Amino acid sequence: MEKVRFAIVGCGAVARRHHVPALLRSPRAEISVLCDIEEEPARLVRDRFKLGSTVYQNLDQVLADPDVDVVDICGPSFTHYDYARRSILAGKHVLVEKPPVYRVDQAEELIALSNRRGVKLGVVLNQRYRAPIEGLRQAKDEGLLGDIVKIQVIHHANLVFGESPWLWDETKSKYMLYEFGIHFLDLLVYFCGEHDEIVCVVPTSQESVHTTSDLQIIIRFKSGQLGIMDLTQDSTRHSAFFTQLNAYGTATDAFVRFFPPQVRFSAGVDPPQKYLFSELASFAKFGWSLATGKYLVERNRPHQRVLDMFMDWLVRDTAYSLTMQAALPTLRLLNALEERIPGYVSQGAKVGIEGAH
């Protein structure tokens, strides 16, 4: 079987932890090229995984290489639009990490360009394929939840200054939306569809660290459902790091925990033993994955699923659920929310074009 030859552009944590391991587990993929503007990260990836890949330091070298079928863009977000556009013009298929681009008009331009050039353009919104989210989606599709009335997401984590330095200037990275909150906003779109109205956005800016640390958001969707989000990236205001997603339905409510993974369904008042058995089951499964050495593979399962589906799209022309077209509702929501956050609006039209050069 002829393999799909990938060039990974951007050899940081996302490539190292997720894309490279997922591609290496696929018998249909070959990592022919590693590219990073700094030579060392690419060589470190090549040496760590014992790859025979060619190492380049700029995109022009990648695009001139006939042994590249797909440009897999894993670098900083401000490069995504420019790199995707140039790759499409060079006749390469493109897979781009989140956020695929910063603006809807950029996405629409790339969609039109990929159609004209006859290449495929996919994005990576992998949280849709985490095990508890798949369990929740199956319950929704089977009618177990009845009609979902609202979805509540709570995501508390560390400050941006634990991330790469290019993210620290929030007027350029718009970190709280496009890096920190995007996966959970995408999950709201995944379950509720297109948004109708931004009911409320309450940002909290921490002057001591010069960044927006909290966002409280209420969104009304065209389906009539409500999305309620609490995003916090400041441990001086909230001490615990955790993520929860609760879906409230007319028949059953669902409570999703990401670590250890669990989705629990409830209607009425549950007896205490139900909670006990649910906890025991989730911890037993988690403990087994650690004991058998499968934890890292299972942790990377969402990326594995996305990359496998993308290769099926290329090789077999099967349907791919994460085309750039499919990401438009999420980008529309992000763009609408951006207008409600001081400091983001003035930079909104510039990021992704000026930042790409």
Description of the structure:
This protein is α/β, with parallel strands linked by helices and 357 residues long. It has two domains: 4-125 and 304-356, Rossmann fold; 128-299, 2-Layer Sandwich (Dihydrodipicolinate Reductase, domain 2), CATH 3.30.360.10. Helices cover 39% and strands 24% of the residues. The strands form two sheets. It has a seven-stranded mixed beta sheet with strand order 8-9-10-7-11-12-13. Strands 3-2-1-4-5-6 form a six-stranded parallel beta sheet, with helices on both faces. Strand 9 (211-221) and strand 10 (226-232) form a beta hairpin. Helix 1 (13-24) packs across helix 11 and helix 4 (80-89) runs parallel beside helix 5. Mean pLDDT is 92; it is low at 346-357.
Helices and strands in order, then pairings?
Blueprint: E1 4-9, H1 13-24, E2 29-35, H2 39-48, E3 54-56, H3 59-63, E4 70-73, H4 80-89, E5 93-96, H5 104-117, E6 121-123, H6 131-141, E7 148-156, H7 170-173, H8 175-192, E8 195-206, E9 211-221, E10 226-232, E11 242-249, E12 253-258, E13 261-266, H9 272-291, H10 295-299, H11 301-316, H12 328-338, H13 345-348
Parallel strand pairs: 1-2, 1-4, 2-3, 4-5, 5-6, 7-10
Antiparallel strand pairs: 7-11, 8-9, 9-10, 11-12, 12-13
Helix pairs in contact: 1-11, 4-5, 8-12
